[in-house]
């Protein structure tokens, strides 16, 4: 887990001030009405609390549940949970995060005690109470604690995850947790609704306010020279695959907004076609003397742009819109488009290798990620396009199950000037990168800028032999054996005994018997994320 305070910088600068104002206003209004004993609020509070108490009294299961919540999220436990998070942040050398958590916890938990004494609102009273507790009622201590806890979890989630479903789902979970704990106090009969709403507002206001104070100017945005590295900060062209991107106008608006934020002018737009996946468009962009080319599409579009712009000295920004997106994943470029745009315009340039690919089937092209023959190519050929649109790269898993029975084929592999070696393999993959989808380390030693190509030969004899192969891959075991072997070199020649399916960066490449792959070190510049800053 890595912390990046830049992720918490809202697209709309007024978002945090508005949230602070809303939370402060809610607490302030409730505090004022309670302090003057405004009868409409008091009467409504008592009516809701009475109905909730009666509802819980008739349901022993609910009573047990709210009692459990009361124990698990009392302020001592919340303080313990937050201490563990603060300890983890300290261990990760995130001093600013640690200071923020500690300061927020102390101010909320101790401050809530002071507020209770200040307002001195009695708790609800019952002839037969569900739970006996002493002290004042306003604001609710449990609610303030869970409001604090949820706010800290939300901000930690934001700075440790990119935009997308995972972040959204976690934030929803933390909000629901806060609402559930706060509501349970009313159903337990120990607080009024105004108490828990004020507690949530207070518990959320303090850590959010301290976040703006303690983390101010700690985001460590790239220095001007970092943004201008290599390609410079002037004119940008965008090569778009309209089929992959989809809503073009919305995409253009988002990209122009981010480009303007970093000082770039109006982009030039070029659209790929079935006949030209990006080569001609990239040549047009280069002819226009742009300083940065953005490739928006799948791995095929990105490969075409990089292949054409190689050795030009112009950096390529990658906006992944494909299913595999292996280049982006291996370069740690976010898959979420909005986050990837931040890298395109605020990242730094990295020189990566490009490999040439020649086969006896007539292919004379390049690849950035992986090429191969055998079972892996059978997977690419057999994937269902409709299923791929619905479930993404998991469609490859479905196709992979079907391809496990692909027979072993005799292959001869020659690495550089070494003696040829023979295998009876189910699949042979030449990789410029090491990881598959899901971070599976197929070639754990492969680096995209080491000037070498890595080869993996997978050759289980029977179906059950896939189990030890999978364990060796996941376990990153490097020793070669009869089932799995790895080689490295600058030039790789693979010769099969008969025509077999081939693949190129995840795309089917027909059938052939011979593949020649050769690395060209550092001839492509790609925008990658800046190293994550460590707060001190």
Offer a concise description of the structure:
This protein has about 525 residues and is of the alpha+beta class.
Structural domain count: 3
In the predicted model, the low-confidence regions spanning at least 5 consecutive residues are 221-232
Please report the distance between the alpha carbons of the first and last residues. Answer: 17 Å
Class by SSE composition: alpha+beta
Overall shape: it is elongated
Provide the residue-averaged pLDDT: 85
Count every helix, treating DSSP H or I runs of 4 or more residues as helices.
Answer: 19
**What is the gyration radius calculated from CA atoms?**
29 Å
Question: What percentage of amino acids are in beta strands?
Answer: 15-25%
Q: Into which percent range does the helicity of residues fall?
A: 40-55%
Number of strands: 14
Q: How would you sum up the major sheet?
A: 14 strands, mixed
Question: What's the structural blueprint in terms of helices and strands?
Answer:
Blueprint: H1 15-35, H2 39-57, H3 60-72, H4 75-91, H5 95-119, H6 141-160, H7 165-187, H8 193-214, H9 224-227, E1 236-240, H10 242-245, H11 248-261, E2 268-271, H12 279-287, E3 292-297, H13 299-309, E4 315-320, H14 326-330, H15 337-346, E5 348-359, E6 364-367, E7 370-374, H16 375-382, H17 385-391, H18 394-403, E8 409-415, E9 421-425, E10 427-431, E11 453-458, H19 466-474, E12 484-489, E13 491-504, E14 507-528
Parallel strand pairs: 1-2, 1-3, 3-4, 4-14
Antiparallel strand pairs: 5-6, 5-14, 7-10, 7-13, 8-9, 8-13, 10-11, 11-12, 13-14
Helix pairs in contact: 1-8, 3-7, 4-5, 4-6, 5-6, 5-8, 6-7, 6-8, 7-8, 11-15, 12-13, 16-18
């Amino acid at each position: 887990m890595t912390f990046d305070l830049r992720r918490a910088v809202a697209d709309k600068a007024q978002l945090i001030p508005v949230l602070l104002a809303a939370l402060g206003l809610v607490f302030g209004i409730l505090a004022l009405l309670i302090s003057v004993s405004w009868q409409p609020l008091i009467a409504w509070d008592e009516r809701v609390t009475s109905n909730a108490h009666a509802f819980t009294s008739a349901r022993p299961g609910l009573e047990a549940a709210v009692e459990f919540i009361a124990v698990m999220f009392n302020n001592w436990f919340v303080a313990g949970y937050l201490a563990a998070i603060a300890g983890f942040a300290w261990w990760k050398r995130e001093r600013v995060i640690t200071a923020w958590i500690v300061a927020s916890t102390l101010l909320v938990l101790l401050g809530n005690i002071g507020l209770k004494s200040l307002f001195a609102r009695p708790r609800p009273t019952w002839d037969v109470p569900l739970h006996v507790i002493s002290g004042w009622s306003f604001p609710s201590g449990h609610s303030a604690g869970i409001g604090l806890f949820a706010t800290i979890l939300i901000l930690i989630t934001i700075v440790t995850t990119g935009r997308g479903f995972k972040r959204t789902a976690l934030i929803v979970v933390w909000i629901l947790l806060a609402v559930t704990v706060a509501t349970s106090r009313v159903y337990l009969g120990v607080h009024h609704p105004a108490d828990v709403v004020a507690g949530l507002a207070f518990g959320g206001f303090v850590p959010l306010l301290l976040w703006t104070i303690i983390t101010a100017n700690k985001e460590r945005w790239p220095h001007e020279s970092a943004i201008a590295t290599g390609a410079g900060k002037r004119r940008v062209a965008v090569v778009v695959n309209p089929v992959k991107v989809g809503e073009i106008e919305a995409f253009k608006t988002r990209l122009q907004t981010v480009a303007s934020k970093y000082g770039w002018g109006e982009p030039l737009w070029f659209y790929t076609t079935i006949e030209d996946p990006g080569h001609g468009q990239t040549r047009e962009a280069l002819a226009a003397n742009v300083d940065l080319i953005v490739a928006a599409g799948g791995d095929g579009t990105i490969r075409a742009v990089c292949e054409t712009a190689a050795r030009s000295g112009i950096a390529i920004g990658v906006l992944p819109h494909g299913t595999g997106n292996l280049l982006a994943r291996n370069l740690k470029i976010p898959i979420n488009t909005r986050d990837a745009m931040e890298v395109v315009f605020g990242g730094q340039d990295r020189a990566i290798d490009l490999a040439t690919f020649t086969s006896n089937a007539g292919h004379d092209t390049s690849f950035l990620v992986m090429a191969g023959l055998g079972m892996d190519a059978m997977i690419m050929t057999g994937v269902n396009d409709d299923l791929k649109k619905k479930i993404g790269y998991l469609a490859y898993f479905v196709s992979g199950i079907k391809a496990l029975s692909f027979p072993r084929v005799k292959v001869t592999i020659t690495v550089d000037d070494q003696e040829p070696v023979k295998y009876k393999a189910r699949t042979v993959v030449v990789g410029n990168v090491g990881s598959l989808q899901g971070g599976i380390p197929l070639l754990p030693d492969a680096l995209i800028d080491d000037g070498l190509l890595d080869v993996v030969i997978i050759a289980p004899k029977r179906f059950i032999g896939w189990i030890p192969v999978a364990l060796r891959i996941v376990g990153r075991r490097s020793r070669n054996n009869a089932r799995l072997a790895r080689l490295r070199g600058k030039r790789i020649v693979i010769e099969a005994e008969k025509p077999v399916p081939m693949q190129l960066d995840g795309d089917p490449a027909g059938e052939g018997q011979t593949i020649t792959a050769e690395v060209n070190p550092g001839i492509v510049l790609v925008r990658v994320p800046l190293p994550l800053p460590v707060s001190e």
